[in-house]
Amino acid sequence: MTALRGTVALVFGLTVLLWQNPSAAVLAVAFGVFALVDGLVLGAVAVVGRDVLEQWWVVLVEGVVGMVVGLVVLAWPGLSGLSLLSLLAAWAVVTGVFEIEAGVRLRRLAGSDASLFLAGGLSLLVGMALIAVPKDDPLEIAWAIGVFGIVYGGVLLVAAGRLRRLARAARPAAPR
Asked: pLDDT for 49-61, tens place per residue?
């Protein structure tokens, strides 16, 4: 599921960067779909993994936040660039905090793995930067959102690979 989230973020970032002169409405729809899909994936992870995840409800809350932000943005695609950027910033901060918490728990289990911690830190930093330096220029917003999507997606894909290796190492060997 982490790989799916990373792929969706990467495709989202590339789509936003490759779109010629995106309007605020195009950015809103792209981000709304991204946040909604990300939230749905996290919600599914929480529900399916509630027997195995120590704090499944944290993942569920992060998913619900993504779904709500995605639905709000899709319901009002005519949001101004600054309003869209504010929603993206708030989503990035909330997601970053939850992923840092998940990264800390993963480091306790996996020792040296810091990929989820890095994804959360990146998300938190981008969210704080967007809050600190708000822009209303659609091109600047597109670049900020696109680059974030690509880097965030890449970090999540690295995290997915590490999580897969960790899961394989934790499985007992099959008898021969």
From this structure: 888 777 788 889 8
> Is 164 in contact with 13 (CB distance < 8 Å)?
no
The CA distance from 91 to 19, in Å, is 23
Task: Note whether 127 and 92 are within 8 A (CB).
Answer: yes
The DSSP 8-state label assigned to residue 43 in this structure reads H
Residue 30 in tokens: 């792209």
Q: What is the model's pTM?
A: 0.77
* Closest by CA position to 90, among listed 126, 35, 36, 127: 127
Does pLDDT of 126 surpass 80? yes
Among 118, 161, 140, 156, which residue's Cα sits nearest to residue 34?
156
How far apart CA 126 and CA 123 sit, in angstroms, is: 5
Other C-beta atoms lying within 10 Å of the C-beta of residue 85? 24
Specify the DSSP class assigned to residue 175: P
Structure-token pair, residue 79: 């949001």
Q: What is the C-alpha separation between 176 and 165, in angstroms, rounded?
A: 22
Q: How far is 17 from 70, CA to CA, in rounded Å?
A: 19
Measure the CA–CA gap between 118 and 27, rounded to whole angstroms.
Answer: 25
Please give the C-alpha separations between residue 175 and each of 128, 164, 165, 172, in angstroms, as whole numbers: 51, 21, 20, 9
